Every structure is written in C-alpha cells, then in structure tokens.
Amino acid sequence: MCGIVGLLVKNPALRPQLGALMVPMLVGMTERGPDSAGLAVYTEPVADDRHKISLYSGGHKVGWTELRDRLGADLPGRHEISVQGNHAVLTSAADPDGIAAWLARNEPEVAVLSVGQSIDLYKDVGAPADIADRYGFKSLSGSHLVGHTRMATESAVTPAHAHPFTAGRDFCLVHNGSLSNPHLVRKRLEPLGIEFETDNDTEAACRFFEWRLREGDDLETAVKRGFVELDGFYTFLMGTDQELLIVRDAFACKPAVIAESDDYVAIASEFRSLAHLPHIADASLFEPKPEEIYSWRI
Amino acid sequence: MANLRPLQSLREFDLARDSLRDLNLFLHKHAADEGITQVHVKNPDGAHSVACGLDAKLDVEVHGHVGYYLAGMNKHATVTVHGNAGPGAAENMMSGRVHVKGFASTAAGASAHGGILVIDGDASLRCGISLKGGDIVVGGSVGSFSAFMAQAGRMVICGDAEDALGDSLYEAVIYVRGRVRSLGADARFEPMSDTDRAAVKQLLTQAGMNHDPAEFKRVASAKSLYHWHADADQEY
Question: What residues of A are in contact with residue B103 (Cβ under 8 Å)?
Fold first, then answer.
C-alpha cells in the first residue's frame, strides 16, 4: 500500500500556497505510507542556459558551500546552492551530466535526486509529517507537485527506494501498486544504455516512460504504450514541467480520487487527503476510470 | 412548552471533534442503553469504517463523504450517506439498508448476504462481487467485473455496465437498463418474465427510483461452468 497526492493550481495567485495546501494532503496519507515520503515540486523555471539539480546526502555530513566551491574550481561557471539540512538544490549553467559525473567521483555519498529547469525533489525515510517539517514543505511555492507516502512491499526502505522516481529532465513518477514484470522492462532498457539506480519496480516504469519521451512520444502516447508493456497493478501519477498526469491500470485496484475546481486540481489516493482543501464542497469529485488518461497543463 | 419537546431519540456526532471509535462504540453499545435510534454524523471527511458492524435497528445519516468500508457487515440498521463512499461500502451486509446518495468506489456491496444497498450515482469496478443474497440498486453505471462470481441476490443497474458483467455467475440475477460493454464468462442475456419485471419494479420502488421495468434486460448464468467438462479444453 502507498499514498499518492498531486496538486496543480490553475489560479496563479495560489502558487505561493502550493506547499501549505499540500502538507495536509501528504500527512493525510500517512496510514497508507508510514515508512518514507517524497515530493517533486515544479517552480518557475530557471534561465534557459541553467539547470537545477536536487541533491541528497542522507546521514553523511556534507559541507555544501565547500562542495560548490570545489565544483566551481573544476567546472567553470556560476554555481549557486541553496541548502536545507541534508538536501540542497544546485543551480548551474554547467552540463548536468558533467556535474553528476563530478559528484560520483568527488562526493560519492551525495545522490542526485532530480535534474531539470523546474523540478525540485525531496525524499527520505520516516513519517510524512516529519519529512514535511524536515524540508519545510509548507513554505514551498510552485505551479504543481507530485507527492508520495510509501509502505514498502517489494524492495527495501531506503531514501533511494522512496518515491518520486525521476529520469531525464523535469520528469517524475510516483506509484501505488506493484509491477510484475519490472525485470523484463529493465532487461529491455539496459541494452539501450539506460542505467538503473535501484531494484525498485517503480523505477522501471519511470525509466520506461522517460525513454519513450526521449524517443519522441508525448506523455499520453508513452502511457498508452505502458498499457501493453507494463504488467501489474498501478495508479501512476506523473509530472513534467508543463503537465500533471494520472492513470490507473485496467483493474483499478489502487484507489484515486480527483477534486477539480476553477482554482485547482487535487489528486489523492483517498478523499480524506482532500477534505481540508478550500471550497472542496464546490469542487467536482470523481474517480479516474481504468486505463483512461487524465492530464492537466499549467 | 409542548413545541419545545427535545428529540430525545436523536444523537449527533461531529467527526471533526468526536472520534470514529466513539461513534462506532455508541452505535454498537450505548445507543440501545440510552434508547436512541437516530444518529446524525457530520464532517466524516473520508473516514474509514463509519457505522461499521451495526447490529440494531438504528437510523444513521451521514452528511459528507466517507472512506473505505462504510457500514460493513451491517445488520438491521439503515445507513444513509449524503455524499460519496470509498471502497467496500456495505461489504458483507447481512440485512438492513445502506444508501449512498453520491457515487461508490470499488467493490460496493461485495459479498452481501442480505439487505439492500442503494447507490444513486455510479458504482466503480467489482460492484456486487461475490454477492451472496443481498440486493443492490445502482442509479448510475457500474464498472468492470461487477457481480463477479455472484452467488445469490439481485442487482439492478439503471445505467450502463463496463466489461465482464456477471463473470462466472452462480444464482444471482442482474437487471441492466443501459449498454453492457461485455458480458463475463458464462453470463448471458435471458428473456424478462413477469416475475423479473415485478422484481425490478419492487427494487426500484425500494430505492426510490423511477424507471420502466420493461427497459431492463436480464443477465443470468448459462450454468456451463457449474460442472467439470473434461473435453472443454479449458477454453472458457
């Protein structure tokens, strides 16, 4: 079992409240996912020539400012870092793949959680409320977000196994369910040079969709291919810098409910995570139908 | 002062303030001691197991949306939700009445042995799965695999049905008014008899719905799965 939450504000005036609206949604899914939690938030994009990289050091002590300076000495360009405990967002004009390679050589204990121009990513083990406090989720602003609370069923409880999973740029995915053929998917992708970081089934789905996006599919087409290629139970919630998308498998064993109003679209595994939202009584409430794709653009 | 006579048989719970456990404890034990038969619940906000396991002639009205297992195992009580219900509403009901005024999520009325479940809106997948004698009336449409392996009881669907309606049915009977995307294995359309039309009329009346029974089609078991056929090649 796991909990998923998603929120996209249609009314730009609500963007500064994105995190505050979301925290009760995430905490509301604690019983469905008490062991880990994570969040991808999409903010105003950085300048065209720059990228944001979300970094995570877990239990290791990392001198983030010193890391930035050492990186700057090796990779020329302006690097900025904003730090929140064991998490930091590095903004840089240097090639993100070059930065990741530099980190792997020089700071192997630092994990890259996401790369993009809009996405910031946080995930860790622990109770959702503690993680929300740890990273100041309440004060986050942005246009949309994808969140998850995890109750591990098929792989270890570690920060790397927590959701959201990311691949490529500005793409993330969370999953409630379990896939039965992740190893087949992986065997198909690895010869294409696609590398995996964990043995988690959700990572296979995330890398499959991102591969299709790179091959030229739009997200909806990629998801339709997933109906054929991915076997198992799923409610998937995905984000790109422009879009929020939800889909359930043909058997729809894993729940989801959507509340849509003029101001926002809010998604959760259960209504109890939506009950607090402003003017919820006036929002249109519905459950996504199996194998129907629902998406919203910012 | 006669006009100010208090409604002594009514008790109100506000789940924004009162715990779910206190509500269900009251319904299970204290309501009878205090002679209370009517209970109103507000702010359920998606709570699970609201009015679950009742075993008395109580009338419970819930104002708002509920989560999993509304009125599960209900016996004797009438539970009405002015809102939507999560998965497993009225699961394993034995008797009484559960009425969801909005939509119901997956597996509504699963395994119900008796009583009636009324859903004014749509019901999601697997509505009435393994039904064992209860009645279900859905004002809207039902999702795929509804009435899967239903053994006894009746199901009235005023709207459409998605895939595999009545797969592996036993003795339960389904009446459906709208389009059926596909029937499940061993389910078939059968002619409506006067008895069928009377049953639909009676169930619609009980549900407070108004349709012409002549608009409904009967779906029941072809009974070809009842016995083992050694030469069937297992191609069902």
Answer: 286-287
> Angle at which helices A201-214 and A182-189 pack, to 10 degrees?
40
Are B168 and B225 a contacting pair, CB within 8 Å? yes
Identify from A270, A280, A282 which residue to disrupt to test chain B contact, counting B C-beta atoms within 10 A and taking the largest count. A270
The residue to which tokens 């999409």 are assigned: A42
Chosen from A272, A274, A277 to mutate, greatest number of chain B CBs within 10 A? A272
Kindly identify which residue of chain B lies nearest to residue A273, measuring between CA atoms.
B46
Q: How far is A67 from chain B (nearest CA, A)?
A: 46
* pLDDT block averages, 10 residues each, chain A of length 298: 96 97 98 97 96 96 95 93 95 96 96 98 97 97 98 90 97 97 97 96 97 97 97 97 97 97 98 97 97 97
Query: pLDDT tens across B144-169, in order?
Result: 999 999 999 999 999 999 999 999 99
Chain B residues touching A285 at Cβ < 8 A: 65, 84, 102
Report yes or no: A88 and A111 within 8 Å, Cβ to Cβ.
no
pLDDT band at B230 (very low <50, low <70, confident <90, very high): confident
pTM check: above 0.90? yes
Distances (CA, A) of A145 to A20, A62, A173, B167, B209: 12, 27, 11, 40, 42
* Contact of A128 with A37, CB cutoff 8 Å: yes
Assign 3-class secondary structure to chain A: CEEEEEEEECCHHHHHHHHHHHHHHHHHCCCCCECEEEEEEECCCCCCCCEEEEEECCCCCCCHHHHHHHHHHHCCCCEEEEEECCEEEEEECCCHHHHHHHHHHHCCCCEEEEEECCEEEEEEECCHHHHHHHCCHHHCCCCEEEEEEECCCCCCCCCCCCCCEECCCCCEEEEEEEECCHHHHHHHHHHHCCCCCCCCHHHHHHHHHHHHHHCCCCHHHHHHHHHHHCCEEEEEEEECCCEEEEEECCCCCCCCEEEECCCEEEEECCHHHCCCCCCHHHCEEECCCCCCCEEEEC
Structure tokens at B34: 């205090």
* CB B124, CB A290: distance < 8 Å: no
Provide the edge-to-edge strand list for the sheet that holds A165-166.
A165-166, A172-179, A232-239, A243-248, A294-297
Cross-chain Cβ contact B46/A251 below 8 Å: no
Q: Check: CB of residue A40 under 8 Å from CB of residue A18.
A: no
Say what the ipTM of the complex is.
Answer: 0.93
Of the candidates B46, B86, B124, the beta carbon closest to that of A252 is on B124
